[in-house]
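Data availability (excerpt). The following record was deposited with the supplementary files.
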Amino acid sequence: MPAYIPAARGVGEFAVVEALPAVVVVVFAAVTHLADPWFLFALLAGVYWFGDDRLAAAPRRAGATAIALVAAGYAAVALGKASVAVPRPPGATGTVTPPPWLPSVLDGWYRAQLVSTGFGFPSGHATGAAVAYGALALVCTALWTPERRYAVATTVAVAVAASRVVIEVHYLVDVAAGLLLGAVVLTGGLALAGDSRLRTLSLTAPAGQLTPTPVFVLAAVVSVAAAAVAVANGHPEKVVEAAIGIGTGVGGAVGWQLATGTEPPVSVRLAVPGLLFTGGTWIGAYVLGGDVVRTTLMTAVAVAGVVAVPVVAARIE
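Predicted structure:
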């Protein structure tokens, strides 16, 4: 365990958290869903499938790039956690008592939000929120004004990061590192995708012709590194998580080779079977998890399907 990231790394944040009213904790337990991996990928797939010129001049390129950026963000988190391997706060694995006024039907949900296992540094939710909402703000250049997009993205990312501390599944330093890591991934990923704004240092200039393939490849390569580090550090159980990243990166890169980036939005009647196939395959990768090869292949098929749906839909239409 690296000495520069101690196991007990709090700065007194939980003394503040424990003084908060229970209703605040419940609210933040809901806010944290805004960066659940399933929610982010569903949100970005929706933007990719259904986005039109009200979002961006090239909505398919914008949406696919956002998906690739989030995949790279989660790959970076997997590498970071396998490298540092420090535990979560003690409260993340303790006994949770729902507030008495909370409807009993929500007790299981509440307990599930306040209990979390695995390594704690950096925060995956904070990283995912920074990358996903930052990406949407940067690639959806036809939506609102730049200032409004960046304000909303920053607010959501910070709220998600705060929620992880409020529900005591991360230390403050974990979420701060996650936000910083997300900003680094976002900047580097957009540079790989060919975002011309990084050359002019102007966030209000046109984004240019975004190409998601290099970012998907980056996600796969970093995930391979995460798997290697996990094995080297004696954490073989984390290899399956890295396999999901490998499959996501490979599947996205393969799927994008079928696209031109000019496909029209997907109609609802064709999106439904596409969702059933890709969603079913994705869920299967998790439910049948445990085998690295099977997880990698099923995830790759699911993500390739997500990226290829607009292509198939355009040909059917």
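Summary of structural features: The chain has a mean pLDDT of 93.
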